[in-house]
Amino acid sequence: MWTREALHELVVEKLRDYLFVVVSNREPYVHSYVSGAIHCDMPPSGLTTALDPIMRACGGTWVAHGGGNADRDTVDENDRIRVPPGDPRYTLRRVWLSKEEEDAYYYGFSNDALWPLCHIAYTRPTFNEAEWNVYRTVNERFANAVLEEVGTGKAFVFVQDYHLTLLPRLLREANPELIIAQFWHIPWPNPEAFRVCPWQAEILTGLLGNHLLGFHLRYHCNNFLDTVDRALEARVDRDRYEAIHGGEKTAIRPFPISIDFEDVARRAQDEAVQAEMERLKLSLEIKGMLVGMGLDRIDYTKGIPDRLRAFDRFLERYPHYRNKVVFIQTGVPSRVHVPAYRRINDEIDSLIEEVNWKYETEHWRPIIDLRGPLPPLTVMALRRLADFAIVSSLHDGMNLVAKEYVASSVDERGVLILSLFTGAARELTDAILVNPYATDYFAEAIRAALEMPLEEKQRRMRRMRAIVQENNIYKWAADIVTEMAKVEFGA
Ligand code: GDG
Fold first, then answer.
1. Probe ligand 1: pick from 158, 159, 185, 392, max atoms within 8 Å of CB?
2. According to the model, what pLDDT value does residue 8 have?
């Protein structure tokens, strides 16, 4: 079983005199002013949830955009700060972007072009040349920051996600000694879907600057190789899972991401969680009710309207469950400057209003809307309270919410309803798997979750817990570090 300590030992052995550098758009710790005082928060994102425990274990430097309004006031003269606050384990180097750059590079090209391009959720990508040009400039800015951090030393650079597709090539050209890997946290679509991107060749050439490129699933690796094969003059070796471009080799590998299972399971058993569960039951007036839960970053890929429609259909078909079951929808709004995100928030608002209006009685409202950032203790108490959780993504690279629910179900009584279109569905086959587009079947899945015998719930949950426990975040990191080290030795 991989642990933080075992990963630390592996890193010391494999990386030796190499500096370990993580690069991502999003920073793991954001400083902001709240009523004149500086607060430090971790943003709700799958990427930071996954990488912070690894950086704590490895040390090194994390290069990221400083997006908090107190970020500049908390760094030293080299734009660095040691984190986590109070227990510093690694260095955070902040990169600054103007508001216009953030608009074009982050909200524009990254989240209004690449995100919808890679997720098949029927939201059309918007390609804008001015945004693309800023995206290129910002990738260059990140490259300069990484090169400054590395100096003349040796380094393993681990790049994250779709905001930084041009970075690996820039780094490799500037310093051929670097060992560069990238992990792609979202799906990679098939070549027909990807080819609508006017800059597909530049993006692929950028990504093939990596020595190693990781995806969650082998299916995404295959899609990537097919895309390279169609779009570039490159050799694709499907037996060895490699792309050779301009004489340089990139290994393409699946690494299904995960969570710190032991940490989540331990926190689930804190005494404070029990007290918070009691507080929630009282304040939400759900004592004695059956409880369902959805927790998501509000995003049109997460299938939130689809689950609300399924819950509506369930109440319509099975009226005897009215007054007995509530569904709590929680999560934080994100990327609200992108029009499609504003639309999804509006759609969720009106669906909740509609369903509640249709069924509510004097003492019962079927959907409880708890949107907005919630304290981690409340999130944990909700997971523990929930008789069932719904993860209904229309398309999702992995989905850590599903794994967190499994790890938190310490009494093995929870039921997970999980979309077939998540990466997590490949591992969590004991969930009730649903197609979120098929509302009637989805409604039946909710009934099945509520009526499942206790022994079956326990049997399924026990098996899923064993899978997440073994395939934890430290295994994910250890597998990547081991592959990166092979590059050094030319294996
Ligand atoms: C991308 C890929 C892939 C959510 N709301 C709140 C909150 N959260 C936390 C969850 C979880 C994280 O945010 C979301 O992670 P996911 O993996 O589910 O989704 P994305 O953010 O879309 O992540 C995804 C991931 O990258 C990693 O590779 O799995 O497929 O899309 O940890 O618990 N946390 C708090 N309050 C909230 O309201 N505190």
1. 185
2. 84
Q: What is the mean pLDDT of residues 264-273?
A: 97
Give the E-state strand segments of 177-307 in sequence order. 179-183, 212-215, 235-237, 242-245, 248-254, 290-295
> CA–CA separation, 473 vs 275, rounded Å?
29
Q: Rounded CA gap, 213 and 102, in Å?
A: 26
pTM exceeds cut of 0.85: yes
- Which atom number of ligand 1 is nearest to the Cα of residue 396? 30
Band the pLDDT of 138: cuts 50, 70, 90: very high
Of all atoms in ligand 1, which is nearest to the CA of residue 185? 28
d(CA 111, CA 98): 17
* Beta carbon of 373 within 6 Å of any ligand 1 atom: yes
pLDDT tens sequence across 278-325: 999 999 999 999 999 999 999 999 999 999 999 999 999 999 999 999
**332 close to ligand 1 (CB < 6 Angstrom):** yes
Is pLDDT at 158 greater than 60 in this prediction?
A: yes
Provide the β-strand partners of residue 329. Answer: 294, 369
CB-CB contact of 169 with 159 (8 Å): no
Q: Which residues contact 105 (CB under 8 A, 6 or more apart)?
A: 97, 131, 134, 135, 137, 138, 163
Residue 153: the pLDDT is 86
- How would you write 420-467 as a 3-class SS string? CCEHHHHCCCCCEEECCCCHHHHHHHHHHHHHCCHHHHHHHHHHHHHH
Is there an atom of ligand 1 within 6 Å of 374 CB?
A: yes
Q: Which of 24, 41, 45, 298 to mutate to test the pocket of ligand 1 (most atoms within 8 A of CB)?
A: 45
Tell me if 46 CB under 6 Å of ligand 1: yes
Q: Is 399 in the pocket of ligand 1 (CB under 6 A)?
A: yes
Region 172-183: mean pLDDT is 96
Domains and CATH numbers, the chain: 4-258+474-486 (3.40.50.2000), 264-470 (3.40.50.2000)
Whether 483 has a pLDDT exceeding 90, the answer reads yes
Tokens of 397: 């690279």
Sign of CA dihedral 252, 253, 257, 262: negative
pLDDT, residue 49, reads 74
Average pLDDT over the chain, rounded to whole? 95
